[in-house]
Amino acid sequence: MDQVYNLIQQRNAIETLPFVSLHSSNSQLRNLVASLQFRCESLERQYLELQQLLADQALLVNQSNQNIIKSGSGGVLKNEGKLREKIAKLQKDLNEKLRNEVKLAAEAAESSKEISQLNEEKSSHEATIATLNVEIHRCNEIITHLTNEL
Questions:
Q1: 14, 21 contact by CB (below 8 A)
Q2: How many CB atoms are located within 10 Å of the residue 68 CB?
Q3: What is the CA radius of gyration of the chain?
Q4: Cα gap 92→76, rounded to integer Å
Q5: Are 72 and 60 in contact (CB under 8 A)?
Q6: What are 37-75's pLDDT values in tens digits?
Q7: Which of 74, 109, 144, 147 satisfies CB 3.0 to 4.6 Å to 69 for a cystine?
Q8: Percent of the chain whose pLDDT exceeds 70
Q9: What is the mean predicted confidence (pLDDT) over 101-119?
Q10: CA 85: distance to chain centroid?
Q11: DSSP assignment of 10-69, as one string?
Q12: Do residues 122 and 114 touch, judged by C-beta distance below 8 A?
């Protein structure tokens, strides 16, 4: 039986020589997968432990906050609430001022546009007046010339 096994080993050695590198890389990859799998499972356990610890700490914090409120020494929490309200009011006021500034800027831009349009109209009217004055002067000269001829 040992002789058959040895013959099979020799045959495998001859036939698998080109595939030795593939076989070794495959075994290395299997070892890597096994180690990564172990590390993944270890990290998952740590993650679950940390989640549980976090939940426990959150529960303790909530209980201590409730105890502070119940014991009457919740002045800090009340002060925090007042400060939050004050901040919210200030934020609201700031937003309102910003809206007003934007509105005023838009109105100023619109007024500027209207002024420029009125200035253009004024220039146009002045040109028309100048043209009409020249026409009046010419008509007066014609009238004077015709009067002299009569």
A1: no
A2: 14
A3: 48
A4: 24
A5: no
A6: 898 888 888 888 888 888 888 888 777 767 666 665 555
A7: 74
A8: 89
A9: 88
A10: 26
A11: HHHHHHTGGGHHHHHHHHHHHHHHHHHHHHHHHHHHHHHHHHHHHHHHHHHHHHHHHHHH
A12: no
